Amino acid sequence: MIPFVDLKAQHAALREELLSAIGGVLQSCEFTLGREVAAFEASFAEYCGTRHGVGVNSGTSALHLALLAAGAGPGDEVVTVPFTFMATASAIQYTGATPVFVDIDPRSFTMDPAAVEAAITPRTKVLLPVHLFGQTADMDPLMEIARRHGLVVIEDAAQAHGALYKGRRAGSIGDMGCFSFYPGKNLGACGEGGMVVSNHPEAVQRMRMLRDWGAERKYHHVLKGYNYRLEGIQGAVLNVKLRYLEAWTEARRAAAARYDRLLAQADVGLPEAMAWGRHVYHVYAVRCAERAALQQGLAEAGIQTGIHYPFPIHLLQAFADLGYPAGSFPHAEQAAREVLSLPMFPELTEAQSAEVAEAVRRLAVPAQASLASVT
Ligand SMILES: *Cc1c(COP(=O)(O)O)cnc(C)c1O
């Protein structure tokens, strides 16, 4: 069986180092925030090319606090994309602001800058592009539009640790960048975790208070805050794993290059790495005409796959209140129908890649044939 993601391989390789790091926290008893978290905030911010990092308990909390620091609240609008994980839209709704969607560019799967202007109103406060699957959005035109309209830019970089846009790290281009350290992400905790990176000292100060009950110091609560602290054990684990992130990213990119080569003749659409940056392949998603059949065929061949994401946010029952009918965002809707994520993790071997590619070549049918079969 070839798993979709193999966390066991990663943890087997790091077992001794991780146990020793966790042992250090058992010794210090700094279980929430503390020195390991502070050290990780400093090194991850440095890795991203930003001055500050605010460690929190999930990527969702990172988005929520960044939006609060941007001043988003009831009556405000936040422009984002419908082709993403639901956390992006939920975090907007946590603040009381309204998510306003714009379609994606079908080649990069990220926010289409040409669609943004029409979505901006006097209520728009934040532009929130998502660096989906490990590739950044086209940030230059997005930043230009945001600056012209006085919008705060928050990057959802939960899938893009180490990705580059014209030489700059994901998360460092807008005003704030939000990361998730959910175990399956490119840099994952042994549990939940997240971080906001930023160069704005006032926003950072505000988020540091908000994650810890709005307190300036103990019991001096100057804001209505949250319990969003990053755990000490996760900080210690992430300090170990950060040292491997670049090697893991190169391994992902090598695995993606193997798929690109082996699937060049297959009847699937391959993911496009845009010229503007470095794709870190959190997800390797192909497009296929008969997705259900291909996914089932692969499962029967012992190959696990995923779908990121089967429904665009605006068509989820949970977001029906936003009132977007089907057909509102054709590129997002088509992507949701067609994408299939192949096994992708740093330890994926050449033999495993070859086996996956052989099965995809054998099972995928051309778009034409699938069209003929329904008419
Ligand atoms: C994972 C993810 C999140 C949420 O992160 P959690 O740590 O699971 O809360 C937000 N946005 C995107 C695009 C994600 O992939």
Automatic annotation (TrEMBL):
<dbReference type="InterPro" id="IPR000653">
    <property type="entry name" value="DegT/StrS_aminotransferase"/>
</dbReference>
<dbReference type="InterPro" id="IPR015421">
    <property type="entry name" value="PyrdxlP-dep_Trfase_major"/>
</dbReference>
<comment type="similarity">
    <text>Belongs to the DegT/DnrJ/EryC1 family.</text>
</comment>
<dbReference type="InterPro" id="IPR015422">
    <property type="entry name" value="PyrdxlP-dep_Trfase_small"/>
</dbReference>
<dbReference type="Pfam" id="PF01041">
    <property type="entry name" value="DegT_DnrJ_EryC1"/>
</dbReference>
<feature type="modified residue" description="N6-(pyridoxal phosphate)lysine">
    <location>
        <position position="185"/>
    </location>
</feature>
<dbReference type="GO" id="GO:0008483">
    <property type="term" value="F:transaminase activity"/>
</dbReference>
<feature type="active site" description="Proton acceptor">
    <location>
        <position position="185"/>
    </location>
</feature>
<dbReference type="GO" id="GO:0000271">
    <property type="term" value="P:polysaccharide biosynthetic process"/>
</dbReference>
<keyword id="KW-0032">Aminotransferase</keyword>
<protein>
    <submittedName>
        <fullName>DegT/DnrJ/EryC1/StrS family aminotransferase</fullName>
        <ecNumber>2.6.1.-</ecNumber>
    </submittedName>
</protein>
<dbReference type="GO" id="GO:0030170">
    <property type="term" value="F:pyridoxal phosphate binding"/>
</dbReference>
<dbReference type="InterPro" id="IPR015424">
    <property type="entry name" value="PyrdxlP-dep_Trfase"/>
</dbReference>
<keyword id="KW-0808">Transferase</keyword>
<keyword id="KW-0663">Pyridoxal phosphate</keyword>
